[in-house]
Amino acid sequence: MNVTKYLHSCLLVEDQDKTILIDPDVFTYQEKVFDITKVNKLDFILITHVHPDHCFPPFIKELTTKFPDATIISNQQVVDLLSKEGINATTEETEFIAMETIPHEKLWDTEPPENTIFKVFNRLTHPGDSLHFNTSSEILALPIQAPWGSTVAAVEKALEMKPKIIIPIHDWHWKDVVRKGMYERLTTFFASKEIIFKGIDTGETITV
To answer: 87-134, pLDDT tens digit by residue?
Structure first.
C-alpha cells in the first residue's frame, strides 16, 4: 500500500490497483500541494464529514471533472451537501471500503456533524474528526492536533488501539517547525511502545 500525505487529513491511498483519495480539504486545495496533473487515475473519494477542512466542493468538482467515474462515498450529510453542488455521492460501502458512523468530537460553538470512520482494505483506518473508535487496522491515520482535541488524547487513543503504524493527520494548524519537532518527539515515544510513527512530509509517499 502506498500512502501520500497532503495537508491536514488528506491522504491518497494506492493499493490493489485502486486509487483512493480521503478528505479532499480546503487547505490542500488553496495551497496547491495536490497536483491533479500527476494523478493518472482516481477510483474513489472518501469523505469523513462536511467541514471544509475535510470536504471542499471546489476541490471535489475539479477531481470529478477529470475523473468522472470516481465514486464518492460518505455519510448522508455529505451526500446532501454535494448534491446541492451538482455532485453525486453515495452512502454505500464496498467490499474493500468499510464505513461506520462515529461521533465527531465536541465543538464549543456549534453542533458536531455526522462523522464517518473508514477502513480501507482492512489495513488503514481513517477516523475523521473523532477519537471515539474502539478498533483500528494495522495502519492508523491519527488526528493528532485540533481545536476540539489534544495531542495527549490522541496518543492515549493510539496506545489503546496498538496499531503497527501511525500516520499523523489533522495537523495543518501547526507551523512547519513545530510539526517537525512534534513528529520527532512522537517518533521516539511510539518507538518505545513498538509502534512506528511515520511523520510524512507534505506530498511525500510511503509504502506500508
So the answer is: 999 999 999 999 999 999 999 999 999 999 999 999 999 999 999 999
Q: 198 and 204 in contact (C-beta within 8 Å)? A: no
Phi and psi for 188 in degrees, rounded to 5?
-65, -45
Tell me the C-alpha distance between 9 and 142, whole Å: 9
pTM over 0.70: yes
Q: How far apart are CA 19 and CA 39, in angstroms?
A: 9
Give residues with Cβ within 8 angstroms of 116, minimum separation 6: 47, 48, 49, 74, 75, 78, 99, 100, 101, 102, 128
**How far is the C-alpha of 115 from the C-alpha of 30, rounded, in Å?**
23
What does the block give as the cell for 202?
507534505
Please list, in sequence order, all residues whose beta carbon lies within 8 angstroms of the beta carbon of residue 20, skipping any fewer than 6 positions away. Answer: 12, 13, 14, 42, 43, 44, 45, 46, 97, 120
Residue-range domains of the chain with CATH: 2-207 (3.60.15.10)
CA dihedral sign, ordered 27, 204, 128, 198: negative
pLDDT digits (tens, 9 = 90+) for 55-76: 999 999 999 999 999 999 999 9
Task: Report the C-alpha gap between 49 and 51 in whole angstroms.
Answer: 6
Pairing of β 124-126 and β 205-207: unpaired
Query: Are 119 and 136 spatial neighbours (Cβ–Cβ below 8 Å)?
Result: no
